[in-house]
Each structure stands twice: as C-alpha cells, then as structure tokens.
Amino acid sequence: xxxxxxxxxxxPTVRTVAELRGVVGGWxxxxxxxxxxxxxxxxxxxxxxxxxxxRALCPRAVASLFVNPTQFGPNEDFxxxxxxxxxxxxxxxxxxxxxxxxxxxAEMYPEGFASSVNPGPIAERQCGPFRPGHFAGVxxxxxxxxxxxxxxxxxxxxxxxxxFQVIRRVAADLDIPVRIExxxxxxxxxxxxxxxxxxxxxxxxRTVAPALYRTLREMARRLDAGDTVAVVTADGLAALxxxxxxxxxxxxxxxxxxxxxxARLDRPxxxxxxxxxxKTRLIDNIAAIPRH
Length: 292
Ligand code: AMP
Fold this sequence. Notes:
Blueprint: H1 3-8, E1 13-14, H2 17-29, E2 34-39, H3 45-57, E3 60-65, H4 85-94, E4 99-101, H5 105-108, H6 127-130, H7 134-149, E5 153-157, H8 161-173, E6 179-183, H9 203-208, H10 211-224, H11 229-243, E7 247-255, E8 269-277, E9 280-288
Parallel strand pairs: 1-4, 2-3, 2-5, 3-4, 5-6
Antiparallel strand pairs: 7-8, 8-9
Helix pairs in contact: 7-8, 10-11
The structure holds adenosine monophosphate.
C-alpha cells in the first residue's frame, strides 16, 4: 500500500479489554508477536518513533490512547490536556499501527476500583516530590495496559526517563511477561524535545526552551572531559537561570538505572532536569557516559 493510501485507511479501534484481547489473541494464535505503545494522545513524531520501533520488533503494533486522570495532580492540566482522537488515529495509521485501544475512564476504572501499584524508591526522587501520586498513577495504568493487551514488547520514550525506569522496575517486580524497550528522544531541529505540552509555550518562551537541551549537552561534554559532577551541575544551573527559565524543580546527575544521585561519574549516569517557563513545565535528560 502506498503511504497516502495507508494514511487514508481507517485505523481499527477497540474500547474494551475484551475486544482488545480478542484481536491480540488472534494475532498470537497466528504466531505473530505484538508491540504496545501507551500514549495520552496529542501525538507527534516522538510517539510515532515508538510505533515504528515496535513495528520493527513485532509484526503487529497496538497503540493505546488514554488520558489517565490518576496521574495528574489536582493543579495539573488534566482538563485542558489536548485531545483529538481522529487526528491521532490518522497519524498512527500512517506509522503502521494496526490497532488503536482507546478505552473510556469507566473501562479502566470501573465502579469499586481500589488497587494501585507503588513503584517504591525510584519514584521518590526527581519528579516524585513535585508530582505526588504521579508515578503510582503511571505504574498502575501501565501495568493494567500491559496485562490487558498481553503485548510481547512495550515501547517507552527516553524523554520521560524516570517514567521509563519506573516501568522497567514495575514490570520486573510484578513478573509482567513483556519486554520493556526505550526509544531515544525525538527533538525539534533546535534541540527541544517534542512534547504534547509544547503547545502551551508562548512564542517568546519557545525561543528560550531549546536552552535546556543545549545546557544538558554542554554538561555531558564537560563530564566527558573530566570536570566534576559538582562543578558541572552548578554551572549548568547558572546557565539555565541566565537563559530565562523561571523555576528549576531539579537538575542533577543520577545513576542511569536506580536514579540515585551520583557524586562521581563512576558508572553510566543520566543528567535529569525539570524546569519551568511560566506555567509550562519542561523535562529533558541526556546520557552521561563514564570515562575509562
Ligand atoms: P505521552 O503521550 O506524552 O504520555 O507519551 C507517550 C509515550 O511517548 C511515552 O513513552 C513518552 O516517553 C513517549 N514520548 C513523548 N515524547 C517523546 C519524544 N519527544 N521522543 C520520544 N518519545 C517520546
């Protein structure tokens, strides 16, 4: 099928666990492995990179679309989060997705729903204190999506690096039979990580935003050149303040697996950051590779 023909193809959509299991079960019986990309919609090239990676690993690709109320805090943007299912479905079809799973809130959290997944210490650092309950909400909904879909592989963006490591931890701890794969962050040409929330930036804030990734890159370069974590972190913070970020939730070098702070880069690290431009919170991160 040509690209334009595949773009016109309506994407099969299911809204219940029973229908989802019916389709995926059929694929498994036919011997096909299945990938899953969980999303909250407002899709962009970052999400499509996950679908394409899933497509490369398995013959069948499912994407889910669910704006999960339990991972938003009371003062966060749940109500105004951008929603456009028809546009998302068209993009997913163009990326080779076979099935959209778009459940309603009552399918995910029926009357009487009460359990939640607590991801433990890995969720208590970085974004954890600034977004109480967020990672329990993410861990619970992603565990449900993995178990509902029975996918063989699930793809997550490194853009949300702490989320990716939380999900790896939870899937391993709960013996969920799935392979969790990370996909590198997709960026604008000026380095800004694609995010559904970038639409909130004013034109002026949009010109400041790429300084976050520039600063992270510069930090990674200096760590690679042998500068200390303390000096590089202090200089990075100063650079962010000069660039015009209005608040900085955190900006730190952590162990890439456990996310515990690293005083010395003696193992694979990750520089993790969350900063504000007015009312919009941006997160980003970069690998910090130890020198040998
Ligand atoms: P979201 O819909 O924002 O919850 O994101 C769904 C998935 O897409 C998550 O695994 C994100 O980490 C991933 N994602 C979001 N933005 C990007 C990006 N710029 N590059 C790669 N993956 C991304």
